[in-house]
Design goal:
- With 137 residues, this protein is mainly beta.
- The protein contains 2 helices and 8 strands.
């Protein structure tokens, strides 16, 4: 395997624990599976792939303490993993400007969704809503 090629994927998932009463790290999180907030663990995973192999590089059970780091604040710590992939894919939850600038500082590209109200400056003439831009072929 050539770890300088491939894609680094940052993703989170909710592990349901609907019957947990008092269990460490169990809090309420959005579940894509249920399309609602559910009780469970939030697991963040950093995965490397070149299309065939899938290699977990890092993971963390997200703890939501008072005044603690938000889910997206853990992302920069994971993204500085030392892998030289050049591309990081993640969902829009992690597309905060701070995270995107950090990825760019590695000399990497990123692949993510942006919300339609996000302001961008693709041609360096001023910020515009991304929803108003025409995407070229």
């Amino acid at each position: 395997m050539d770890l300088r090629k491939g894609l680094l994927i940052l993703d989170d998932t909710t592990l349901d624990k609907p019957y947990a009463r008092k269990m460490d790290l169990v809090t309420y999180h959005w579940s894509g599976k249920h399309q609602r907030v559910v009780k469970g663990f939030a697991l963040l995973t950093l995965l490397w792939t070149e299309g065939q192999s899938l290699i977990p590089c890092n993971f963390r059970v997200y703890d939501k303490p008072q005044g603690g780091k938000t889910n997206s604040r853990y992302a920069p710590e994971s993204q500085g993993s030392g892998l030289c992939t050049g591309v990081c894919a993640m969902d829009s939850w992690y597309s905060a400007l701070k995270n995107l600038k950090l990825i760019a500082s590695f000399g990497w590209f990123f692949l993510t969704r942006l919300k339609r109200n996000r302001l961008v400056n693709p041609d360096r003439v001023g910020n515009r809503l991304i929803s108003k831009l025409e995407i070229p072929q």
